[in-house]
Amino acid sequence: MTQTFHRRNLPHLYDELGTYFITYRLSNSIPLSALQKLEHSPTNYDFEIFKKLFLKYDSLLDSSDFGIDYLINKKIADICKSTLHYPNGKDYKLICYCIMPNHVHLVFRLLAGNSGISKIMKGIKGTSARISNLFLNKTGKFWQDESYDRLVRNDKELFFIIKYILMNPVKAGLANNWNDWEHTFCDRNYIVL
Question: Count H helices, E strands: the chain?
Answer without folding.
Answer: 5, 7
